[in-house]
């Protein structure tokens, strides 16, 4: 792998780390700073948000208090570079809740602009089959409507 590709992957991993930090610490501004102005976001509950203004309104409504009693980790699973400045990023998202774990598999299309990787078109999806949720009777995060 060439050094520029390694640097891009490291930068994408940093975006993932910021998402994790912002969500666990309920920091909407930190999270929202990762998006393009025209970004698209589909929540784990299927709510479709078009543009940073809509993503911001939703985030500011649900994030403060939304992580009470929970933590989440994000792990890079795969990066597909569609072009040198566009990547499809698959992430494993594990929520730890009082009711048990829940697992998501976000897909983030990211674009590199002015040297920074930004969230551009993102979809969050609950994972149906994962070793952490195999014996769980209810889905504490992905069964909720948002």
Could you name the key traits of this structure?
146 residues, alpha+beta, seven-stranded mixed β-sheet, 3 helices, 26% helix
Gap between N and C termini, in Å? 40 Å
Structural class: alpha+beta
The share of residues in helices is 25-40%
Helix count, DSSP H or I runs of 4 or more residues? 3
> What percentage of amino acids are in beta strands?
35-45%
Beta-strand segment tally = 7
Mean pLDDT: 90
Low-confidence parts lasting 5 or more residues at pLDDT below 50?
none
Q: Which value, in Å, is the CA radius of gyration?
A: 15 Å
Query: What is the general shape?
Result: globular
Largest sheet: 7 strands, mixed
Order of helices and strands: HHEEHEEEEE
Task: Give structural notes.
This protein is an alpha+beta fold. It is built from 3 helices and 7 strands. The protein has helices at 3-24, 28-32, 52-62; strands at residues 35-42, 48-50, 71-83, 86-97, 100-104, 107-113, 116-123. Strands 1, 2, 3, 4, 5, 6 and 7 form a 7-stranded mixed sheet that branches. A hairpin with a 5-residue loop joins β1 and β2. The longest helix is centred in the first third of the chain and has 22 residues, at 3-24. The chain is globular. It starts with a helix and ends in a 23-residue tail after the last strand.
